[in-house]
Amino acid sequence: MILVRNRQQLLSGNKFLRFKLEPHRHIVVFIIDMIGGFLKVFSFKNLCTYVVKNSFQLLAITLIAGLASCSPKITKPVVKTPAKPVEQKPAVKFTQGNISVFVPFQLNKFNLKTVTKAQIGKADMALDFYQGLMLGIDSAANSGLSFKVNVFDSRDDNSQLAALSKREAVKSSNLIIGPIFPDGIKYMTTFSEANKMPIVSPLAASKPSEFNNPNLISVVNDIEQHGIKVAGYIAKQYKADQAIVVLINTKKSSDEQFAAPIRKTFAAKYPGFLVQEFSSTYVFETKMVKGKKYAVIVCSDDAPFVAPSLTKLHKMKNVSGYPIQIFGHPNWAKQTYNIEQLQNLQTVLSSSYYVDYKSKSVVEFIKAYRAKYEFEPTEYAFKGFDVGFYFGKLLAKHGASYADFIIKENYKGLHNDFDFGYDAEYGYYNQHLMMLQYKNMSLMQVD
Predict the structure, then answer these.
(1) Which fold has domain 13-220+359-432?
(2) Which InterPro entries match (predicted)?
């Protein structure tokens, strides 16, 4: 028996990626923290010099002034006198993208002179996301647009968000990236709607309907989307008259969130399939029939329930001889189960995160990240890069009207593709999901 943590790979990066290791002249970065009631601008380098060398550089400021425009005046023609030519004013050009970033560094909890590696470790996710994000924006700046990036420590605190949202730098932004966590995103809804400000939710897998913000941009797929994807994939792979779809569902709220959209999708789109539901694999075993293929969906991510269920299903396939294939909860990708059993059961998972470490763009990104930060990029660094590069490119290409093109322009990223839909109540949501299968003792993309 081999127990290993499941590793993910996949997705080739965008062919237009260009990584620059030197400071980019088109980006100015302010790292801003509210301490003691006044605005403090400082280099975050003091926080983690020995942990991340040269992590944050205050880059050269490039300010490009736009030309003002006004309505041209037309002079009435006078008899025997030529008409005064109409003065043509050039249109105002979009020359700088203003981005505000809310990340929970929680600087107020650190003593900048005595900070330890353990304390820095607590901020790993925020640091990794920020570093990847800045590489992404830097790459987008190669298109020629200048960016002003204001980085705020949100502290994972709504009172801090209340103070930050009053800042002119935030109000004048073209885009806000963050907050990271659902509570913060929900808190910023009123500000977003009042200012018609697009806000990117970069990491939360919450349903957009929880926020009711037409300006919200949800990057990570929610559990309902996963359920719909799994149902559609099974319908493509199996014939209704030869297969039975089985849901192993304990009826816990978390399990039902995954099971409900699967059940609903089969009923609405694939009514020819027989769908059965059981509380455990032991109950399921008593109802099995010969001559049918079984697509078994284990709806739980509770390890003490999942592990014995996999063992039971493995025995039912290899001892009893039933043709069984397993479809698991998306969270399995971050959990540890018997990989030999997973592979034998041809286990398939839906996923919004997969990195192909053999792709040229991924290799280039890793080299750039190592050179700049002297660390290996984590999941959050990959996600940060894709967010920064995609939205930076939209701003560079379309200027202030970039939001009109979010649902029109897709993106092939390092960790997932972006293919946004739009709901007038809930905002933009990424529709792209992948299907991964255990092969050769690892997860491989199959759809």
Answers:
(1) Rossmann fold (3.40.50)
(2) Peripla_BP_I
Please list the helix, strand and coil fractions of the chain in percent, rounded to the nearest 5, in that order: 35, 20, 45
Q: Alpha-carbon distance 104 to 122, whole Å?
A: 10
Domains 13-220+359-432 and 223-351 share a fold: yes
Residues 149 and 133: beta-carbon distance below 8 Å: no
Question: Which structure tokens are listed for 281?
Answer: 């694999």
Q: From edge to edge, which strands make up the β-sheet containing 348-351?
A: 274-278, 243-248, 293-298, 324-328, 348-351, 434-439, 442-445
pLDDT score for 39:
33
Q: Which residues pair with 337 in a beta bridge?
A: 4
User: Strand 348-351 to strand 434-439: parallel, antiparallel, or no bridges (unpaired)?
Assistant: antiparallel
Angle at 432 between CA 382 and CA 239, to 5 degrees: 130
Q: Which residues of the chain have pLDDT under 70?
A: 1-92, 112-113, 115-122
Q: Which two tokens stand for residue 172?
A: 């004048």
CA distance 413 to 387: 9
Q: Is 315 exposed, middle or buried (0-12, 13-18, 19+ CB in 10 A)?
A: middle
**How many other CB atoms are found less than 10 A from the CB of residue 42?**
16
Q: Would you list the domain boundaries of the chain?
A: 13-220+359-432, 223-351
pLDDT score recorded for residue 107: 72
Q: Find residue 435's DSSP bridge partners.
A: 350
Name the strand (E) or helix (H) holding 342: helix 339-344
**Cβ 57 vs Cβ 23: under 8 Å:** yes
* Residue 414 DSSP one-character state: S
d(CA 112, CA 81): 74
Which among 139, 167, 172 has a CA at the least distance from the CA of 154? Answer: 167
Look up the pTM and report it: 0.81
pLDDT value, residue 54: 38
Please, is 20 exposed, middle or buried when counting C-beta atoms within 10 Å of its C-beta (0-12, 13-18, 19+)?
Answer: middle
Q: Check residue 432 and give left, alpha or beta (phi > 0: left; psi -120 to 50: alpha).
A: beta
For the domain spanning 223-351, the CATH number is 3.40.50.2300
Least Cα distance to 24 among 394, 382, 276, 372 occurs for 372
